[in-house]
């Protein structure tokens, strides 16, 4: 995505005046997220591919091979595989970009109704311009950032869903400026010529500042007047808007991350190693060229009479120069291009394994896991930080009424219920919601027998809310709740016989136990984040006035009448139990209000409401006055439905030393509550730091206070293992802390002078939650960790608001959920549920990393063993660049003889089965620490390869120098030596791959032994009389294989060379497993010695003690109560329609959470200790 870079300081937009607006050259509404077009594809894609050092290296070799004076190998041996690699990559990149073009075209060609010259005309989105007035209809996407002018709803109201922007599915209200709300007719709008002066394009979703100038007056504009691109119009017949920002200037696109070319750390390491190998190659070439110069001067000159130099060589220096380049070509097989072909094939195989994994298939939504890229698989085995969205990723955004406490009696625990079947409410209540799920029949019996406390409990739930009701047909009710919590509570009351039917600004109509009842609504005492409660004051049909209140138990219990003490203690215990289960708790109370008290309070409330100064404070004081001496009714417990297996997944990933950060657009309270539900936050944590400052100074002070508190607490803890040396206080804290930071504070924390302090504090905490963050801030947090921690990051989300984060992380994972497919389209991997992340990383990721590392180690080993023989031979052939083996063996070695066995190992190998990978998460740590393939491991492989080449050259050379055939003919000829060395090489590398393979399949057996068999078959064919007769100039080794391999001394030589190469490796490995076993060795050992397998970590393993937290209406928006009582929104369309589900989420044991281990090698005894503890 290429952003439109704007230098404007302010934006001026005049309605219905394209000519005026075009002189500012504002961006059009066409968007482009693709990387290439037809013209730029070839040059740009080739430029990207030749950034791979290896591709440039092979292009250079190809040029050298085209020079006949120095080339001893055919040019096609390089150009064919190079062209193949470039073509495959280009096709893959073109396919990816084609889908981006297709997505862009789909969006750009959507239709919009634009007001042009007084009439509505259909225009494509891409043709909409700044200053146009467009008409939106219900359920349509907003085409650009619009200033709302008028609406079909009263008072210029309209309702929008912003899931694509901030991930929230509850609806929000927007309202036009009063002066334009009357321009409902398109003729009036056609003559509207107001001018808007506002801020330039920016990425702040929650802020807009501008002024409307019209008819010599000016009107302030705020975010409440704006409809942003990506929103969907809901429950509103139609509205009109003026385009302020279009295309790349819209806040949605300003928050979109750039499409990036992602490489794995192994790719970057391989680029470095190829440079090193090329340097090594040059050094070998220089040594052999110097040797050639010395030999030609001292020895070669003696043969000039019958072995003259080939033209244009006329002196020993020029001979050495040509010899250097000849050896560069001959020795280039230390990094053959087949390496890169093989890497791509292995990655493709790993991708198919992910796609085919039935355990990552979601049967509910019929969605399989999909690897949308093939280049990042091994990086899945190295992730250290996961950045997760909340809504739709960790949660289903579905609330369910789970338990309740009424007058000291708890209900909703299936174990205490006689009936464990789901209750059927239909016979009792024809208006019941069929989707409502509850199991405790004792509560239903209590309602049926007419218990007064139970009736009052559900009466409160049916009256004390801001839900709107739509009755499509008799008895078919649809509730539109601003927050899912409220919808769940009102639905619960509905099923237990207290049905909310409708409301007007002054009444609430319910059906109580089949009897219609209308209450007069006297006042709504609205919710806000400070009060954490809401109340309604109603007059029942008998004329009695009663206040009903629900809210956070921390604020409501202290406002009860003293006579409630005993009941409060019992209810508090119930609240603790509910909170321990991660439920969102809420306390309910009421009080009777006398007529005199009502009259007095009503007057004071009216004065506070009309106050011009300190209105909010005066209203709060009035509310506080009447919300006293209440009588406790009970408590509710709502389950914010986590996705299945979320707590268990987070637990296991934490044990794998992976840190999870939640980045969400939700309010702080909601995010914290989910943090407790999914066990990221626990009551065992020493402290949860809240960073909520609004200024740079306050944020810095809060961060430093957190650091100081963390350091101080650590002093009281038992001394931990010695940490690595560090000058940072936060590196030494225990880690049993959590950090919660708000979006406005994060904006300051991400500034250059504070980012280091923020990173050190946050990374020292066990859990980090960032709330109210914009999509761009999500990406900035990811970039910050990438910059400062040099760790592999993974971002996972399900909405368009997660796209920039997904693109910024090393690995992006999209969840195909409720919020569209934008996240999936931008992702590298996708699946249906968060719990599959556990298997993606700990099984597929770990295996991919292990396989790729073993593949690379073996590949470099076998090619150094193969190539370095030429180097040693150079000292015995006059440095003439003659090859040891015949050219067909050189061509086929990497293509036929050794390619398939290493491919089979790279695709199928595994050290432990998938169940053990999940059972022992610590197995994941070697990937994070990059232990299996690094510079040290590379040099070990190279050393082993060079040692093998020394043995393979000098053992046959020494033995065959004095050996003779049974007929007395000497065996010391070039062809016999070549066949013996080649045969020994193939056997040694085949035995070595057999030792390296940890998991044998039929394919491995066929490839390993089949490749060995193919070597002998092809060699006998190439050395046959038949081919020699047909191509006498091509096949010079006629009969060599047959005559050589019939000699017992040759086989003894091969056996001796094989033993000298393999026995030290075997001895070293046995000693290493015995003296310093890795965790994987210990796990394999336990598999062998135990008859009974260890039980996997699953199901309910325990429960957590908890503190009370109210989950009431945390997604609630202040001021909605006032909107209801004003009557402004009394239409069929209202606020969010909450969806409900009955699926029960899993729970887990808190003891699975462990402190992250420091990045040090596990000592010998530590492996077994980890096995026992895990």
From TrEMBL:
One of the record's GO cellular component terms: trans-Golgi network
P-type ATPase C-terminal domain residues: 824-1077
InterPro entries: ATPase_P-typ_cyto_dom_N (IPR023299), ATPase_P-typ_P_site (IPR018303), ATPase_P-typ_TM_dom_sf (IPR023298), ATPase_P-typ_transduc_dom_A_sf (IPR008250), HAD-like_sf (IPR036412), HAD_sf (IPR023214), P-type_ATPase_IV (IPR006539), P-type_ATPase_N (IPR032631)
Entry cofactors: Mg(2+)
Region annotation Disordered: where it falls in the sequence: 1152-1174
Membrane topology: Multi-pass membrane protein
Alphabetical keyword list: ATP-binding, Lipid transport, Magnesium, Membrane, Metal-binding, Nucleotide-binding, Translocase, Transmembrane, Transmembrane helix, Transport
Residues covered by the P-type ATPase N-terminal domain: 13-79
EC number(s) reported in the record: 7.6.2.1
Gene Ontology terms: biological process: Golgi organization; phospholipid translocation
Domain of life, source organism: Eukaryota
Chief location of this protein within or outside the cell: membrane
Keyword match Glycosyltransferase: no
Reaction catalyzed: ATP + H2O + phospholipidSide 1 = ADP + phosphate + phospholipidSide 2
Active site: 389 (4-aspartylphosphate intermediate)
Binding locations of ATP: 389-391, 486, 527, 550, 584, 664-666, 772, 778, 801-802
Family the entry assigns: Belongs to the cation transport ATPase (P-type) (TC 3.A.3) family. Type IV subfamily.
NCBIfam families: ATPase-Plipid (TIGR01652), ATPase_P-type (TIGR01494)
UniProt-recorded name of the protein: Phospholipid-transporting ATPase
Annotated organism of origin: Sparus aurata (Gilthead sea bream)
